């Protein structure tokens, strides 16, 4: 059982990844971003997820440096993720994109680097670049984002190293049961983006009933559901009280019946693009 904010899952290569982190999707550069990330670190978060397309790596890097200095936290205690964008997919261009992200973040290495989307005809060359970065010890773990089963099968057919993580849209309206099972069978850690469905689940009566029973918020119930399903999760928030609330999910446990009731909310409904029909 996951018991605190510093608990980790062990990726198949032995690297430890926190179960719960903070995402910064669409958070613009500036004091609000820096304060949010520093607040997360101050309140015990150790995993921070960004991407080149978010255009906020410099602010995230500033917050990391200030957080490390002010709170006296070793860099190796943090788990920093970024992603290569679609326009940079290709061997040399992916290496260059990694260098650019590192420079913006002001870091010497990343803990996890992901291919952001499975652009047809491009992701295999990008993966070779990630394998090179990994073999050179410049990134601790490599993975993908938004890959479906057929993308993973196609990638692994030619890959030397299989992905360690697959970060996908995952919430009670999109449970991706088959993909989750495939990843588990292949030792790939599933990670959830948009776990709260961009707020669209926060008035659901079934979730509210379960939340009331545990004296928790709907957001806390969803995050707990993720964790009990063995899915790493990175809810986004810029407000300190919400950042703290999202992490207060280790003092209760959902019953098997409650887990099933939440599973039954699935409608295969996305708030983000469909990886098979995304206009890249």
UniProtKB/TrEMBL annotation:
**SUPFAM superfamilies the UniProt entry points to:** NAD(P)-linked oxidoreductase (SSF51430)
Q: Does the keyword Transcription regulation apply?
A: no
Q: According to the lineage, what is the superkingdom?
A: Bacteria
Protein name listed in UniProt? Diketogulonate reductase-like aldo/keto reductase
List the PROSITE patterns hit by this protein, alphabetically.
Answer: ALDOKETO_REDUCTASE_1, ALDOKETO_REDUCTASE_2
So where does substrate get bound?
Answer: 116
Identify the residue position(s) of the site Lowers pKa of active site Tyr. Answer: 83
Identify the keywords attached in UniProt to this record, alphabetized: Oxidoreductase
Q: Name one GO molecular function term.
A: oxidoreductase activity
By sequence similarity, the record places it as follows: Belongs to the aldo/keto reductase family.
Organism ancestry: Bacteria, Bacillati, Bacillota, Bacilli, Bacillales
Domain NADP-dependent oxidoreductase: from-to ranges: 31-266
Q: Which residues form the active site?
A: 54
